[in-house]
Amino acid sequence: MKKSVLSLIFSFLFSIPAWACLNGETKELKDGTMIYMDFAGFIPRGHSFNNPEDLEKTLGGLEKEYKRTKNLDYLSDKGYILIILKKYKEAIELYKRIESIAPGRYSTASNMGTAYELMGNNIEALKWIEKSIKINPGSHFSSEWIHANILKAKIKGGETYSSEALMQNDFGSKRNPETNLSKEELYKLRKSLFYQLNERISFVNPEDKIVAQLLFDLGNVAFLMKFKNEALGDYEKAVFYGFNDPIIKQRIASLSAITDGKEAPKDVLDESTEDIIKVGLSVFSLLISAIIIFIFRKKIFPMLK
């Protein structure tokens, strides 16, 4: 009886974090420093990094920990912060040092690619990003193929960056986006586009044609998945980044009509509704846990002594 009661209580208590985790992704370094916490949802806003003064202090601590432990994760994190601080050459030299000590680390290849791109050396960046994909193709929600396509498009040059070139897909030119992708494929593409855009927006300011195009495409994916508020947010951000094709106005207008309930699907929830349900479930689980504890308090509290 004791075990069953405690198991029931703990099952409710431990289910709460899974339902109530409404914050976005976080980045914790090897030394425990949290350098950003993202917004929830799938509208890319970029990382909100710690201020430069705090990041500079973190650099010193990471170097000390590496000297103490010889754990290369500390050096790799130091390189990541150097990139955030726009010290790209210093970061590249550090990652070259790491590569000479331990060749083939994913973080080395991935971050070297990012640093080279931010310096404007797209050819070298592509070399390292492709190497990172070979090392760990599933990293970053298996989205680095988009990063590689971006670099290929930049190397090729030209004023336009098409959906086909950047993500090997196109959603047509009609008032509403069209696709042959399945729901599962759309979901995976949504995660990949969001990850790449959230990273890129952290370092690339508007206007930027590549970011604008990918935001438009992310909006199209959200449109097709019936996440109306999310699609509108993506479209508006695409315009902010310089997307000026007239088709976006048509899709925003069409999306507004759906938001008004004219074609709203009954079997798909948008992101805001999902969040409300999660909060409701969290509150409900807390109440149930409290009731169980109250009912069995005479048996539970002696167990805790």
Automatic annotation (TrEMBL):
<feature type="repeat" description="TPR">
    <location>
        <begin position="106"/>
        <end position="139"/>
    </location>
</feature>
<keyword id="KW-0802">TPR repeat</keyword>
<keyword id="KW-0732">Signal</keyword>
<keyword id="KW-1133">Transmembrane helix</keyword>
<keyword id="KW-0472">Membrane</keyword>
<protein>
    <submittedName>
        <fullName>TPR repeat-containing protein</fullName>
    </submittedName>
</protein>
<dbReference type="InterPro" id="IPR011990">
    <property type="entry name" value="TPR-like_helical_dom_sf"/>
</dbReference>
<feature type="transmembrane region" description="Helical">
    <location>
        <begin position="276"/>
        <end position="296"/>
    </location>
</feature>
<dbReference type="Pfam" id="PF13181">
    <property type="entry name" value="TPR_8"/>
</dbReference>
<feature type="signal peptide">
    <location>
        <begin position="1"/>
        <end position="20"/>
    </location>
</feature>
<keyword id="KW-0812">Transmembrane</keyword>
<dbReference type="InterPro" id="IPR019734">
    <property type="entry name" value="TPR_rpt"/>
</dbReference>
